[in-house]
Design a protein that fits this description.
By secondary structure, the protein is of the alpha/beta class. About 40% of the residues lie in helices and about 25% in strands. The protein has 2 domains: about 1-80 and about 305-330, no CATH class; about 90-290, Rossmann fold. The chain has helices spanning about 15-35, 40-45, 50-75, 110-125, 150-160, 170-180, 205-215, 255-265, 280-285, 305-325, and strands at about 1-5, 75-90, 90-95, 130-135, 140-145, 195-200, 220-225, 235, 235, 240, 250, 270, 295-305. The longest helix has 23 residues, at about 15-35.
Amino acid sequence: MFNFASPEYLWLLLLAPAILVLHWAMSAYTSYKLRQLGNTRTLNELMPERSVARGWIKTSILALALALLALAAARPQTGSKLSSRERDGREIVLVVDVSNSMLAEDVEPSRMDRTRYAITQLVEGMKDDGIGVVAFADESEVLLPVTSDYKMALAKVKQLSPALIAAQGTDVGEAIETAMLSFSSSTHNTKSRVMILITDGEDHDENALKAAERAKAMGVMICCIGIGTPEGKPLKIDGKIIEDEEGKMVLTKLNEQLLEQIAATTEGIYTRSHNEDFGLKGIVERLNEIEEAKLNEIVFEEYDEQYQWFVGAALLLLILEFVVMSRRNPLLRGVKLFERNE
C-alpha cells in the first residue's frame, strides 16, 4: 500500500512548472532585447559561449529536482506488511429503512435527513466497536459489512436515500436476515452482536418475528427505533400531501407493536423517535450494558519511509545542474552536443 504521511506538502509540486514558465518568459524577453540590438547571427558570433539549449537543460533539471524534493517532503510510504490486531468491542449493524415515506417532513427537516444526522453522530462517537450498514425497503442491500473503518461508514450513511432501493415497501424480515450476513466470525457464539433497526413502516408480515427468532439464536440483539405514530399521518413530501391512485391521502402508520415484539424477542429495547430525541440515547445506554468480544482487525501495521530515494535522486540532479554550465566551456568546444544549427 502506497501512502503519503504529509500530503499537505504536495502543493510544492506546482513549483516545478512555475520555474519552467518563468524561464520561458525570461528567455523570450532576452531574445526580444537581443533582436533589438542588431542582427541575431552577428550577435551569436559575438557571444559564442551563450547557449539557449544549456539554459533550458539546467532549468529542467532544477525543476525535476524540486519536484522530487516536494515528493520527499510529503513523506511517501509503503505498507510493509499486513497484520491482525485484537480490540475489545461490539459489532453493530445499522438497518435503515429507505422507503419513500422516509422523505416525509413530519420530523424536521425530514425523516431521512434526521436519521442520517443521528446515526452520523453515533458513528462519530465510536472508538472500538465494529460498524455495518444495511439499507432496506421491500428489498435489502448490505452497503457495508461490519468494519472498523469509520470514515467508510460515514460515507455510506451519507448515501442513505430511497434511490438506493428500487422496490418500495417495508420488508423488515428480509432486512433482519440480510443484516445477519454482515457480522464477522469474530463475534460468533458471543453476545456482542447488535442490530439497530430504524423504520417508519407498517410491516405486518410474520416473517419479521421469525427472523427475529433466528437472530436471537445467533446471539444478535435488535434495538428498534420507530419513526411516526401508530395512528398514522398524511404522507407529505416537499410540502405536498401524497395521494394514491384513487385520490385518497396516503397515511404512513408505524407498526409499533411489531417493533416492540422484535426488540423483546432479542432482549433489545424499543424507542419511538421524536423531534427532541431521535431515540439513540437509550439504545447507547443499553449497548454499554452488553459484553464486549475480541474483534480481529486486519491493518497495515508498519509503513516504510521512502523519502530518502527521492532526496537522493534530487541531490544527483542538483549536482548535474551545477556541472552543466549556462555558457559553453572553451575547453569543451569540440563537443557538439549543444552546438546550434546555423
